Amino acid sequence: MRIPTKVRITSKRSYTVSLVERFSEANTMGLCDPVSRQIILRKNLPPRPMLATFIHELIHAMEFEHGIEISHRAVDQLDSAIEMLLRLNGWLKAGEGIADLLGCD
User: Fold this and answer.
1) Residue pLDDT, tens place only, 58-68
2) pTM score
3) Phi/psi zone of residue 62: left (φ > 0), alpha (ψ -120 to 50 degrees), beta?
């Protein structure tokens, strides 16, 4: 799955996206750092977990940049709901990743 290297979160703010081999916490698949404006994802995740993790971290980025307070449980629920919405409406087809949807190379 191809992941974009940069995502605009607001009209004035973008986050860079990078992949790492591992995090210090074994169960961590991704994180969003609002200070450095970075989304960091664990490399080599299977496509569905990669998409879910990317969406999850995008929600956190929107939360930080728009001053929205969302519980982590709600973020978990939203990432699944957004992925389902994308697939059910044909905006994201089987075998496609978020970069295909966004038109990224």
Assistant:
1) 999 999 999 99
2) 0.84
3) alpha
**CA 23 – CA 97 distance, rounded (Å):** 23
All structural domains of the chain, each given as residue ranges with its CATH number in brackets, are: 6-93 (3.30.2010)
46 contacts 61 by C-beta, under 8 angstroms: no
Long-range contacts formed by 67-75: CB under 8 A, 24+ apart:
none
Q: Which two tokens stand for residue 92?
A: 């994201």
Taking alpha carbons only, the member of 101, 104, 80 closest to residue 90 is 101
At position 39, the amino acid (one-letter code) is I
Q: In the chain, which residue ranges form alpha helices assigned H by DSSP? A: 47-66, 72-88, 98-102
- Check if the beta carbon of residue 66 is closer than 8 Å to that of residue 19: no
